[in-house]
């Protein structure tokens, strides 16, 4: 991201005056587009021969992310200049300012529940006998107490700040290859539990009975009766979570294991909150019963602010599912329903109307799974839990769990110089869960980085805390060393890896799942197509952007300038590379058109039509547009991957678009891919690990021919 950052500032100099409203937030104004245009577009898509003729074929789905509504109507080649400038801001590459709290963006004063403040106050309530945690005071066996009660020394903190981590590997039956790393001591490799008795997991009392019922849907008859409450994947993930190590799992799949993973991290988060609150309520009773004038330091049981768990998810639908899960985990049986404040309001704001989706919407299965339900990406909600009750829309400083999107949390944190900003509520977060991290690469990764810079800082205000109850680790500003981070993604990516490696400081250590792909997505290409992988040389990761551009215009583009090489689609993952190429194509007066996530609906239709008919030789095409729309582009004969795709399955998807046009001519198709030694992860995901090793050792171009499947 830093390389893109440098490049973007250079690129923005080429643009006209920057508009003050960030493009990303103007996108939010398009949330309520009518579903009529979606139906028109989908009817048109279903008539495969006529898809390119429709003037209204852009559907409204995902429009808040792609923001086609910006700017004036495009001419064939002219993206309004302010759009790029806005995008520079939206990517967080300019001065870091954020205007999303501006009333112009439709953000009104949000609702918070102030009615139930005393009912859910930790300070004024006491533990009910029946809901006590049987293991609350047993340090030896309770992972929660073991982790939070450990007293670090100054020299250990210094060690963690200066020394590199040491690591070791382990192979687990379901997760595969695990890398354990730690600074304080030689990392101990956990052993995967083959069988788990729920009673041995130190779960808070109600969860022992509710978890098996809530998780029943994922269990098959194949699972052993002695291990009836976890799937093999959940068992191994929970084993790591319950040890309070940081975890990075890069194989989350919305179609297959996404809900399994959501269930298990909700169990862990709720278990943590219930134990933490039980400890506070239990100590309240002890303090009430002790003799007046007795001072004791034994009741340090909380942070500087109340929120303990932060869950970062991309869409409102994800928050809806999490809250439903938490409620199910707290309801011991149908007769004992828990009291949930503001449930109806929550359902209205976070739910979706199934009738809004046109019945003939045709998209890949993975797209349907990711973009299910309410896909608004600007939200945040506080959740307070106290014994048998849950309070939705709790003010942040009275919440135990905060569920938010990166944009939702960013608009509260604000930016340097803004009058109205707040991040004190992040000061004592003990578990940070970042789910579906890959989607934030398509939204705005800068928001994630901004969050990581503001979490676990000393608060600027006391917020009415009783300092005699605050743990020493919080008073010493060491809370980041106790925070557990759980990171789930669909892929390995340098930017996600960087957050895990450089922004997570857990004293217990970290576990990363690092399996290498044996076969790549190239095996899913079903058309007969020669693939030419062209290696470019770069001295460093920061110089690779310029090196790729120079290589493209010097070595690759000249081969495609001839009119015989018409119908050439250039797939560009980075928006900033797209801007640079577009400017260069304009300067060279090449016959091209372009589609990006900011292109208006009518202009997209025009560009597709011109490209199909051969009126435009080149089509510049961004990855984010493909992510949010997944249209089939017809008329492709030559493909150039300016850089390998972020999602490996996009490679086969784009290649398979060549079969979308059958004009009776025996076409000679080509596919050219640019890569460098810094693209090893992406390359392995496309061609497999064995080929990647050979390609990185050799400095020659690699020719692969895929024969296709019947």
TrEMBL record:
<dbReference type="InterPro" id="IPR027417">
    <property type="entry name" value="P-loop_NTPase"/>
</dbReference>
<dbReference type="InterPro" id="IPR053940">
    <property type="entry name" value="UTP25_NTPase-like"/>
</dbReference>
<feature type="compositionally biased region" description="Polar residues">
    <location>
        <begin position="88"/>
        <end position="100"/>
    </location>
</feature>
<dbReference type="GO" id="GO:0032040">
    <property type="term" value="C:small-subunit processome"/>
</dbReference>
<dbReference type="InterPro" id="IPR053939">
    <property type="entry name" value="UTP25_C"/>
</dbReference>
<dbReference type="InterPro" id="IPR010678">
    <property type="entry name" value="UTP25"/>
</dbReference>
<feature type="compositionally biased region" description="Acidic residues">
    <location>
        <begin position="38"/>
        <end position="57"/>
    </location>
</feature>
<comment type="function">
    <text>Component of the ribosomal small subunit processome for the biogenesis of ribosomes, functions in pre-ribosomal RNA (pre-rRNA) processing. Essential for embryonic development in part through the regulation of p53 pathway. Controls the expansion growth of digestive organs and liver. Also involved in the sympathetic neuronal development. Mediates, with CAPN3, the proteasome-independent degradation of p53/TP53.</text>
</comment>
<comment type="subunit">
    <text>Interacts with CAPN3; the interaction is required for CAPN3 translocation to the nucleolus.</text>
</comment>
<keyword id="KW-0539">Nucleus</keyword>
<feature type="compositionally biased region" description="Basic and acidic residues">
    <location>
        <begin position="101"/>
        <end position="119"/>
    </location>
</feature>
<feature type="region of interest" description="Disordered">
    <location>
        <begin position="1"/>
        <end position="120"/>
    </location>
</feature>
<feature type="compositionally biased region" description="Basic and acidic residues">
    <location>
        <begin position="286"/>
        <end position="302"/>
    </location>
</feature>
<dbReference type="GO" id="GO:0019843">
    <property type="term" value="F:rRNA binding"/>
</dbReference>
<comment type="similarity">
    <text>Belongs to the UTP25 family.</text>
</comment>
<dbReference type="GO" id="GO:0034511">
    <property type="term" value="F:U3 snoRNA binding"/>
</dbReference>
<dbReference type="Pfam" id="PF06862">
    <property type="entry name" value="Utp25_C"/>
</dbReference>
<protein>
    <recommendedName>
        <fullName>U3 small nucleolar RNA-associated protein 25 homolog</fullName>
    </recommendedName>
</protein>
<feature type="domain" description="UTP25 NTP hydrolase-like">
    <location>
        <begin position="244"/>
        <end position="511"/>
    </location>
</feature>
<keyword id="KW-0597">Phosphoprotein</keyword>
<dbReference type="Pfam" id="PF22916">
    <property type="entry name" value="UTP25_NTPase-like"/>
</dbReference>
<dbReference type="GO" id="GO:0000462">
    <property type="term" value="P:maturation of SSU-rRNA from tricistronic rRNA transcript (SSU-rRNA, 5.8S rRNA, LSU-rRNA)"/>
</dbReference>
<feature type="domain" description="UTP25 C-terminal">
    <location>
        <begin position="521"/>
        <end position="705"/>
    </location>
</feature>
<feature type="compositionally biased region" description="Basic and acidic residues">
    <location>
        <begin position="1"/>
        <end position="10"/>
    </location>
</feature>
<feature type="region of interest" description="Disordered">
    <location>
        <begin position="282"/>
        <end position="302"/>
    </location>
</feature>
<feature type="compositionally biased region" description="Acidic residues">
    <location>
        <begin position="67"/>
        <end position="86"/>
    </location>
</feature>
<keyword id="KW-0217">Developmental protein</keyword>
């Amino acid at each position: 991201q830093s390389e893109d950052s440098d490049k973007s500032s250079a690129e923005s100099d080429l643009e006209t005056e920057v508009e003050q409203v960030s493009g990303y937030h103007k996108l939010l104004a398009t949330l309520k587009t009518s579903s009529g245009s979606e139906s028109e577009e989908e009817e048109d898509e279903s008539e495969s021969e006529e898809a390119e003729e429709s003037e209204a074929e852009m559907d409204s789905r995902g429009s808040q992310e792609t923001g086609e509504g910006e700017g004036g109507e495009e001419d064939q080649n002219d993206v309004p200049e302010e759009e790029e400038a806005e995008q520079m801001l939206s990517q967080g590459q300019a001065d870091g300012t954020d205007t999303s709290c501006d009333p112009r963006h439709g953000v009104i004063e949000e609702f918070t529940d102030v009615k139930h403040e005393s009912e859910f106050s930790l300070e004024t309530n006491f533990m009910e006998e029946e809901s006590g945690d049987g293991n609350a005071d047993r340090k030896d066996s309770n992972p929660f107490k073991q982790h939070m009660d450990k007293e670090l020394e100054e020299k250990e903190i210094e060690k963690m700040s200066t020394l590199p981590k040491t690591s070791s590997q382990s192979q687990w039956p379901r997760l595969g290859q695990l890398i354990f790393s730690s600074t304080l001591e030689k990392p101990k490799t956990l052993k995967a539990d083959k069988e788990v008795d729920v009673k041995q997991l130190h779960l808070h009392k109600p969860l022992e009975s509710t978890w098996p019922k809530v998780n029943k849907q994922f269990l098959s008859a194949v699972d052993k009766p002695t291990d009836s409450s976890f799937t093999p994947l959940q068992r191994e993930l929970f084993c790591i979570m319950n040890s309070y190590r940081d975890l990075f799992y890069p194989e989350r799949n919305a179609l297959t294991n996404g809900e399994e993973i959501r269930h298990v991290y909700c169990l862990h988060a709720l278990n943590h909150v219930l134990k933490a609150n039980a400890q506070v309520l239990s100590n309240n009773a002890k303090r009430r019963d002790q003799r007046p004038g007795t001072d004791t330091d034994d009741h340090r049981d909380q942070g500087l602010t109340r929120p303990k768990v932060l869950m970062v998810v991309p869409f409102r639908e994800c928050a809806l599912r999490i809250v439903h899960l938490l409620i199910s985990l707290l309801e011991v049986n149908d007769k004992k329903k828990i009291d949930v404040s503001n449930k109806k309001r929550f359902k209205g704001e976070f739910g979706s109307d199934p009738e809004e989706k046109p019945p003939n919407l045709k998209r890949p299965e993975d797209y349907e799974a990711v973009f299910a339900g309410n896909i608004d990406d600007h939200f945040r909600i506080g959740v307070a839990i106290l014994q048998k009750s849950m309070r939705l829309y709790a003010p942040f400083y009275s919440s135990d769990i905060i569920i938010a999107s990166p944009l939702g949390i960013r608009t509260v944190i604000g930016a340097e110089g803004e009058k109205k900003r707040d991040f004190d509520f992040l000061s004592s977060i003990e578990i940070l869960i970042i789910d579906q991290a890959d989607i934030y690469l398509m939204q705005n990764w800068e928001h994630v980085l901004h969050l990581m810079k503001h979490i676990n800082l000393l608060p600027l205000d006391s917020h009415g805390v009783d300092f005699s109850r605050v743990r020493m680790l919080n008073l010493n500003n060491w809370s980041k060393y106790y925070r557990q981070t759980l990171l789930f993604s669909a892929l390995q990516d340098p930017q996600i890896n960087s957050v895990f490696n450089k922004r997570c400081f857990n004293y217990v250590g970290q576990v990363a799942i690092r399996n290498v792909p044996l076969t790549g997505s190239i095996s899913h290409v079903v058309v007969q197509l020669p693939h030419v992988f062209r290696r470019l040389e770069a001295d460093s990761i920061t110089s690779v952007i310029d090196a790729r551009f120079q290589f493209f215009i010097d070595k690759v583009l000249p081969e495609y300038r001839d009119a015989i090489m018409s119908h050439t689609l250039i797939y560009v993952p980075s928006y900033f590379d797209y801007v640079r190429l577009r400017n260069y194509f304009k300067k060279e007066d090449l016959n091209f058109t372009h589609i990006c996530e900011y292109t208006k609906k009518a202009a997209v239709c025009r560009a597709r039509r011109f490209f199909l008919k051969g009126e435009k030789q080149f089509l510049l095409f961004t990855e984010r547009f493909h992510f949010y729309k997944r249209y089939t582009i017809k008329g492709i004969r030559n493909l150039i991957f300016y850089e390998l795709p972020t999602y490996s399955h996009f490679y086969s998807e784009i290649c398979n678009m060549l079969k979308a046009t059958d004009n009776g001519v025996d076409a000679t198709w080509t596919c050219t891919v640019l890569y460098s030694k810094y693209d090893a992860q992406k390359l392995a995901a496309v061609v497999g690990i064995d080929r990647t090793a050979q390609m990185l050792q050799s400095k020659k171009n690699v020719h692969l021919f895929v024969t296709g499947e019947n």
